[in-house]
Write a structure and sequence with these properties.
- With 444 residues, the protein is an alpha/beta fold.
- It folds into 2 domains: 2-63 and 336-442, Aspartate Aminotransferase, domain 1 (Alpha-Beta Complex), CATH 3.90.1150; 78-334, Type I PLP-dependent aspartate aminotransferase-like (Major domain) (Aspartate Aminotransferase, domain 2).
- The chain has helices at 21-26, 65-77, 89-101, 115-132, 153-157, 165-169, 199-211, 237-248, 300-303, 319-334, 337-353, 387-399, 421-442, and strands spanning 31-35, 38-41, 46-49, 106-112, 140-144, 176-179, 216-221, 251-255, 279-282, 294-299, 361-367, 370-375, 402-403, 405-407, 410-413.
- The strands form 3 sheets. A 7-stranded mixed sheet has the order 4-10-9-8-7-5-6, sandwiched between helices. A 4-stranded mixed sheet has the order 1-2-3-13. Strands 11-12-15-14 form a 4-stranded antiparallel sheet, with helices on one face.
- α2 (65-77) runs antiparallel to α10, α7 packs parallel to α8 (237-248) and α11 packs parallel to α13.
- The longest helix is centred in the C-terminal third of the chain and has 22 residues, at 421-442.
- It binds pyridoxal-5'-phosphate.
Length: 444
């Protein structure tokens, strides 16, 4: 089968995402198969997939025939019906199941195609909430520099420093307000935790006062930030945000697109934060990436004033995607993969900690099966690390059979949740080699 796969080069008719012409000229790997935590390319080479499809959705690993069967069965039963004025059984069932497990008081759900649309819908619902309460001027949204919330309107506004995409798309929708992120390793306020008195969180209030508190609709943030490489904020951070949101009547939205469904060793990332959100957004792990699906959940208090959700999306509440999500959640539970994420996450982090001896390794951190190594050229000042050397480490690991990626100045790892100790041992060996070789070449 692999010999029949066409090469992906400049002559290909396919447009790739975020891949430069130069990268295409150097050769693009075509992935043809997946089984367990491994994928195979067009030449038959097999890799450990250390980032669950690189964008991290594949919580259950590859080759799950039960998910294909769930999609097949639902397609035969009812392939599609509108989300407007009609309901379908899988969407209702999935909403019931999410209500059982969602954090805090999140109790109502609507389904979209992906995380970006979930974020858009959260923004719309926030506007509906204020509108139906007679508060029609609230259009501003606060997000954080370095955050990522997808490719659509609010998402692009919130891209922050993750990529230059935001600047390319300007002018953007009005109302985007950015605050600094809780990234203590390279504090954007140049302070040190805990002496900083959580300046990054407290500053939000000053910015709200400056911008006009009556104009704000919602605050959005990831429980653990991806932009700097799996960054969990100090425990005081989210409770302070909650307090400020409550003071000014702003809805607090936690973007669970990466964290939800076991990534961090708990069912939801919010469970690490000691706060109750007004809304959450989900995607990725909800179907383990087997079929597109995003979701928004909100509390009864948010839904209570909303007479009608003025939204109609052809593929909203899609029965086939919801059926796959139900099966995916069932497997997650049956195979105790949230628990495995917690246990293997700890084991992985222990392995990574053996890298502290390396001159370029700054901070090693992680929660469950979402871990990262933040690199620096100076361990005392936490000076920036060149992107080209990070990319080179990623390429070295790939040559040795491990697919991973960089985020900010970190290498970031989010393997399928069914990874085992032997695979982790192999990954640690490969990463050790890749870092050692790169440091040697850098003369460190
Ligand atoms: C936190 C967060 N929100 C939203 C999105 C957008 O999700 P999608 O790519 O499914 O549209 C992403 C994607 O990586 C994300 O990480």
């Amino acid at each position: 089968m692999s010999e029949q796969v066409k090469k992906m080069d400049e002559t290909s008719h396919l447009i790739l995402h975020r891949t430069t012409k130069d990268e295409i000229r150097q050769g693009v790997t075509v992935i043809t198969r997946g089984e367990g935590i491994r994928v195979t390319d067009q030449d038959g080479k097999t890799y450990i997939d250390l980032d669950s499809g690189v964008t991290r959705p594949v919580h259950l690993g590859y080759g799950r025939k039960e998910l294909a069967q769930a999609a097949y069965d639902q397609m035969c039963e009812l392939a599609y019906f509108t989300p407007c004025q009609f309901a379908n059984v899988p969407a209702m069932k999935l909403a019931d199941q999410l209500a059982e497990i969602a954090p805090g008081e999140i109790n109502k759900f609507t389904f979209e195609c992906d995380g970006s649309e979930a974020v858009e819908s959260a923004m719309k619902l926030a506007k509906h909430y204020h509108y139906f309460r007679g508060d029609k001027n609230r259009y501003k949204v606060i997000s954080r520099r370095g955050a990522y919330h997808g490719v659509n309107g609010i998402g692009i506004r919130a891209l922050g420093t993750v990529m230059p995409m935001r600047q390319m798309m300007e002018p953007l929708a009005p109302g985007s307000v950015f605050v600094e992120s809780p990234y203590c390793y390279r504090c954007q306020h140049n302070l040190r935790y805990p002496d900083c008195n959580m300046a990054c969180a407290r500053d939000i209030e000053r910015i709200i006062e400056f911008e006009g508190p009556e104009l704000f609709s919602m605050f959005i943030g990831e429980p653990i930030m991806q932009g700097f490489g799996a960054y969990l904020p100090p425990p005081e951070y989210w409770p302070i945000v909650r307090e400020i949101c409550d003071k000014y009547g702003i809805l607090m939205v936690i973007d669970e697109v990466i964290c939800a469904f076991g990534r961090t060793g708990k069912m939801f990332g919010t469970e690490h934060l000691n706060v109750k959100p007004d809304m959450i957004t989900m995607a990725k792990g909800i179907t383990s990436g087997y079929i597109p699906l995003g979701a928004v959940g909100c509390t009864d208090a948010v839904m209570e004033p909303i007479d009608v959700f003025m939204h109609l999306h052809t593929y909203g509440n899609h029965p086939v995607s919801c059926a796959v999500a139900i099966k995916s959640l069932e497997i997650l539970k049956e195979e105790k993969l949230v628990e495995n994420s917690a246990a293997m996450g700890e084991y992985f982090l222990e392995g990574l900690k053996s890298f502290t001896k390396h001159p370029s390794v700054g901070e090693i951190r992680g929660v469950g099966l979402w871990t990262a190594i933040d690199f620096t050229t100076d361990k005392n000042t936490h000076a920036p690390f060149p992107l080209k050397n990070l990319v080179s480490m990623v390429n070295r690991a790939k040559d040795k059979g491990v697919i991973t990626k960089c985020m900010g100045m970190a290498l970031e790892f989010a393997p399928p949740l069914n990874i085992g100790k032997d695979d982790i041992d192999e990954v640690i060996r490969v990463l050790e080699e890749a870092i050692t070789e790169e440091e040697r070449e850098m003369g460190l």
